[in-house]
From TrEMBL:
Family matches, as PANTHER family: BETA-ALANYL-DOPAMINE_CARCININE HYDROLASE, PEPTIDASE C45
One matching Pfam family: AAT
Residues covered by the Peptidase C45 hydrolase domain: 132-374
Protein name, as recorded: Peptidase C45 hydrolase domain-containing protein
Transmembrane segments: none
Amino acid sequence: MAQGTVLCEREIGRRRAVPVLYLQGSHYDVGFDIGRNFASIIKSFLSSYQNLRDFEKEYKTDTGRDAYDKTLANMKKRFPYYIKEIQGVADGANVPFHQLFLLQMDDIIGTINDNHLPRNDTGGCSSLAIKTPKSTVLGHNEDAFGETLNHFYIMSAHIIPTPEDKELGAIEEKFASLCYAGHLPGYTMGYNEYGLVFSINTLSPLMLKPGNTPRTFITRALLASKSYADAERILRDEGLGIGNGFSLNMIWMNKTGEQEIYNAEVAPDLKADRSIVNILKYTDEPLIHTNIYQRISIKEVIGPIIDSSTCRLKIIDSHTPPHDQNDVKDILSDTTGTDFQVFQEKKDSVIKTIATGIFELEKMTWSIFINKPNSSEPVAILPIRFSMLDKSVQ
């Protein structure tokens, strides 16, 4: 059945469709409505995503089940309202909760029985941000496994926590995020209404920390951040710390309209109960990030994710430094690489660019392209709203 689903998806090709759902309610309610409205996409992804078969295989081992149980217990203590969100998706789509939680654990569960061995990883994502006299622009190629093509949606949510969730630390949230089917929002690109525009790059440290916070929970929590300082606190995750790794590209706007660009690299701290976090502020030079650590000294995996990142960085650096959003589109549309491309569209490629996002803060728009952004029209243009700037912590 799974194989047939994959073949079907390959036959329908790259669909120029961006499903967007506007939601309001508690964490559980918003999750339930995501699951109910996107049940077919979620079920199709769960049946066709080969990595999930690997995760389930590890889940059935004693070591894997122990890591799953420990991680779930820690997340129920730390982010109980996000667990309710996942449960809502599971109930709404009528799919098993454990499959959705395995998606959040990702490489933490996938490597549980060979965490100490050299690992050959695959992945992608390219981000580029610039500050011009007129505006600030963030461009992002969302690269993912081929099964993710046509298996994503955008949720624009207003979270109104229940009194019980408020007591547990939940706050009111307004955000929009592209989501892989069945995943928590936040681990791709989007914005929150406190003044944050963001994109994510997967990073792959060799040594992971099973039981610690999966990166998708950290990035979900970032959607509630009210300031740069708040975001930094969330990234550090004092008392536990991240279990795997990622890079966060941020533009923060304050009440006066001032805009700042940052990149944060996040990695597991094997000696302490917190994340290793390195943040760099960009002023004159463009922010460029792919899927390798540029500042944290840490042993990474080997394989295509590293080779592809090195190749894409080299291609991006070969371009004239970008000065406006058209330059950003040109760079993110580059397909000149032989083995790896910035815009990954080769039919035989395991990793594909499933969408490109261009955030323009002068226009306050988020444009989503399915094909190369320098030669196609955006399939969707969403407004960027910073309605909660007056409640943000400056």
